[in-house]
Specification:
Mean pLDDT: 95
Helix content: 25-40%
Structural class: alpha/beta
Number of helices: 11
Largest sheet: 7 strands, mixed
Shape: globular
Strand content: 15-25%
Low-confidence stretches: none
Radius of gyration: 21 Å
């Protein structure tokens, strides 16, 4: 990997993108303040920490959900709250205890802070840390700021990778965790439910893994056309919401030339889509749910039982970032087409309105920031 470094001149104040329980969205000054960032040589940082100037941050569906709904399951916005967890930037200062990073290093930020003491952490499944502090999940503020202080161990060097691609490493990590735990392998027939950013990145991963045939579904024709451009050999199916799940499954199997999926990767979390996947997969197949859904839902239990279908779930990721960086650096996964809209951080409200508008045609909206005027 290239050891590209970037020298930054700092003059702009730190601002963040906030929401609250009243579902307002606004920009205001945030911590750490400009004066502390400009004066810092690193000694005043907590041990093991670095200061990063955030350059690109993607808007995730969860950010939109916290803004619009104020909660995802038990995670509730109860006060003013900073959004964002898909970020990359450049190191400005390092604590003296940090030896592997230096000012000017370009990094992608892994947003989960763990305890390193519980069973999940000690066995390598730190995404299940009992004391996890995941930036942007209430009450922990997120990364949609101009400057942040963050543990160096969770700042991954990206060399000369673009900041846009660095910010996309977070959703790529979600897809890679799903690929690993679902066991998709060369020649597997795969169904991907949902052609949003996670579904499309999962499509790129399945293509790279040699899955075939691949069928991807969505309710939006525009997103399916986008999927077809990303992976021309993938088959697309526009979900007809007036059909029963059994009927949708018949159409999905028909799109795959009669081949039932061995694995369905469900990227929406929508109850009807989960049911479509369950009715589509073959005997002994697997439905792997990546998407986030409502707290309770009904599933076709006897279909799962009589067909010996495994229903499995995912929560975030662990140990994926080094692999994600290699895949992008070596050109195995090319995500540059996914960023359809770019906004300056001062225009973050417009960025969120675009990301939340299904008619905008947005796939991935990124917010970009400069630190010098």
């Amino acid at each position: 990997m290239s050891t590209t470094t970037t020298v930054e001149t700092i003059s702009k104040p730190n601002i963040g993108v906030f929401t609250n329980p009243e579902h307002k969205l606004w920009i205001e000054e945030s911590k750490p303040n400009l004066d502390s960032v400009k004066k810092s040589k690193g000694e005043d940082l907590p041990e093991g920490y670095v200061t990063v100037a955030i350059k690109s941050t993607g808007i995730c569906g969860s950010d939109i959900h916290f803004w619009h709904a104020g909660a995802i399951g038990p995670m509730v916005v109860t006060d003013n709250h900073i959004l964002g967890h898909e970020s990359a930037g450049v190191v400005l200062a390092t604590h003296p205890s940090v030896s592997h990073l230096k000012p000017g290093d370009r990094v992608a930020i892994e947003p989960g802070l763990i305890c390193n003491e519980c069973e999940q952490c000690l066995t390598g499944r730190y995404n299940g840390c009992e004391k996890m502090q995941f930036l942007s999940t209430p009450p922990v503020d997120g990364l949609l700021r101009r400057y942040v202080n963050h543990p160096a161990i969770w700042c991954h060097k990206i060399g000369d990778m673009t900041y846009e691609n660095g910010a996309l490493l977070e959703p790529l990590s979600v897809a890679l965790a799903g690929m690993e735990r679902s066991g998709v392998s060369l020649g597997d027939s795969v169904l991907i439910c949902g052609a949003g950013p996670i579904g499309l990145i999962t499509l790129l991963c399945c293509q790279a893994a040699g899955a075939c045939p691949i069928v991807i579904t969505d309710v939006d024709e525009g997103r399916l056309k986008y999927a077809a451009r990303l992976c021309p050999r993938a088959k697309t199916y526009k979900v007809n919401t007036s059909l029963q799940s059994t009927e949708c499954a018949d159409e999905i199997i028909k799109a795959a030339n009669g081949i039932k999926p061995a694995v369905a990767l469900e990227c929406t979390g929508v109850e009807s889509s989960v049911a479509n996947a369950i009715y589509s997969v073959k005997f002994g197949g697997k439905v792997f749910v990546i998407g986030v859904g409502k707290p309770n839902m009904t599933v076709p239990f006897m279909r799962l039982s009589t067909q010996e279908i495994d229903l499995q779930f995912q929560y975030r990721y662990a140990n994926t970032w080094p692999r994600a960086i290699r895949l992008v650096q070596d050109g195995v996964i090319d995500m540059h087409q996914l960023v359809t809209h770019r906004f300056d951080i001062e225009d973050a409200v417009k960025a969120f309105e675009t990301a939340g508008d299904v008619k905008s045609g947005a796939i991935k909206v990124q917010i970009q920031s400069e630190v010098d005027s």
